[in-house]
Amino acid sequence: xxxxxxxxxxxxxxxxxxxxxxxxxxxxxxxxxxxxxxxxxxxxxxxxxxxxxxxxxxxxxxxxxxxxxxxxxxxxxxxxxxxxxxxxxxxxxxxxxxxxxxxxxxxxxxxxxxxxxxxxxxxxxxxxxxxxxxxxxxxxxxxxxxxxxxxxxxxxxxxxxxxxxxxxxxxxxxxxxxxxxxxxxxxxxxxxxxxxxxxxxxxxxxxxxxxxxxxxxxxxxxxxxxxxxxxxxxxxxxxxxxxxxxxxxxxxxxxxxxxxxxxxxxxxxxxxxxxxxxxxxxxxxxxxxxxxxxxxxxxxxxxxxxxxxxxxxxxxxxxxxxxxxxxxxxxxxxxxxxxxxxxxxxxxxxxxxxxxxxxxxxxxxxxxxxxxxxxxxxxxxxxxxxxxxxxxxxxxxxxxxxxxxxxxxxxxxxxxxxxxxxxxxxxxxxxxxxxxxxxxxxxxxxxxxxxxxxxxxxxxxxxxxxxxxxxxxxxxxxxxxxxxxxxxxxxxxxxxxxxxxxxxxxxxxxxxxxxxxxxxxxxxxxxxxxxxxxxxxxxxxxxxxxxxxxxxxxxxxxxxxxxxxxxxxxxxxxxxxxxxxxxx
Length: 584
Known about the structure:
Blueprint: H1 11-19, H2 27-38, E1 43-46, H3 53-64, E2 74-77, H4 81-94, E3 103-106, H5 112-121, E4 125-128, H6 130-138, E5 149-152, H7 155-160, H8 164-171, E6 179-184, H9 189-198, E7 203-206, E8 217-223, H10 229-238, E9 245-248, H11 252-264, E10 269-272, H12 278-289, E11 295-298, H13 300-303, E12 313-316, H14 323-330, E13 340-346, H15 351-361, E14 366-367, H16 373-390, H17 395-398, H18 402-408, H19 414-434, H20 448-457, E15 483-488, H21 498-508, E16 516-521, E17 526-531, H22 532-542, E18 546-547, E19 550-551, E20 554-556, H23 563-570
Parallel strand pairs: 1-6, 1-7, 2-4, 2-5, 3-4, 5-6, 8-13, 8-14, 9-11, 9-12, 10-11, 12-13
Antiparallel strand pairs: 15-17, 15-20, 16-17, 18-19
Helix pairs in contact: 2-3, 3-4, 6-8, 16-19
């Protein structure tokens, strides 16, 4: 195995990364660093988060900068503010001993005037989110004419968030002979088209296997009734005393509700979703990084760019519609050679989606039964015993307090004292599990009894313990009190998923934020809930909105309409139409 010096990394950079604990290069660094330093071709690197990507492109970017010219010479595009700041921070750490290097993170949510002033003073490397960089280009305050290297980090995430037009516009402003590097965990069709359009004689580097999750992650699933998902989540958390996890939910509403219930039940948890202000998000993420919070309940969009080491678990509170999203979720654990666990809590209707994920990542899910109360209590007690055994005792400082405490407790036998220590720690857990409800295990191949119960109940057995929503089939046309059900003529067959819907709403609906409730994606169309007071402006904004060259149609859902037929009539005949998203 080569070392960083053999890869061509300069002496001042070697000093900086040595202080950060870098010893031997990781596989992605071995492949990418020499190519960026001396290669004459562009590069597509398929690698998961946590594989050392930032150093792989950051060290060569810094080394290739001409410090005498205070103009942007390298550009890194990232999908989120958080990732943008993380990359800028890492590059600054690498360049600790590089005198005169100027880095600028450019992102929305911060003063644009401050960024304009910094650009006028001169910078060497720009790390940017696409939206804010486009704004600065349109204001004619940033020139990319001297950029020799462009890096697209988490390219599949940027495309999934709807940034393809912005990326195209940005790349039109950089020289045609620039070097380009694209990092992506997966390679959807849109990313492949982007590479074909803008990259020259590009080489593809695969760290692991194309479109698969990291080999250091175990994939586990628990199959329960939907009404028991939250109970199963708590048991999984209780059965792992050292858990440090992100719990992924599908919607902002579900995210907040799961977090609220965990907090009420005594867990160190909090929520991270789009309804929080940037200040609130920063506070939550800091508490999670500092391990004040052990369970972070998050939406996929809100968690993008959250870079946290040593996650023990990623928990899918239901599987995502897009396999690439699962790959990103699971890639947050099992990093830097450490073992991680990705858990899916699913009900029987999600079995097919799980099999599709297994096929794509090339890894089987291991079935587990929800831990029993007896097993959880035993595991927690043994964990406490282990902590007592390993605790550091400062004999000198504690000696002065021992006589008084010993005198007060002298009437207790050793066994009585141990019982009290255990009870002090576990009374809440013991009380809860004393009358714990039974969580029914759902077989992989349901018996006729299970099938009949699901058919007779019309989904009644699939209800969650919260919130108590109506849970009819996905094609229902009515919504709960205070909500309206809306139809839109794009579905899974069009590559239209929940993230696309949210992005279309955010881009087109003006005024106050629209809260989206339940989303049901069908092959030809989708149905979703919003507040009744928001329904008219949502329909007006989305009717005629653009989705990758196609005009969308939207209306309040009509119980009497055949939307399969209606959607088929509205599909474009243009065979060149290729919306983003994975084809099923």
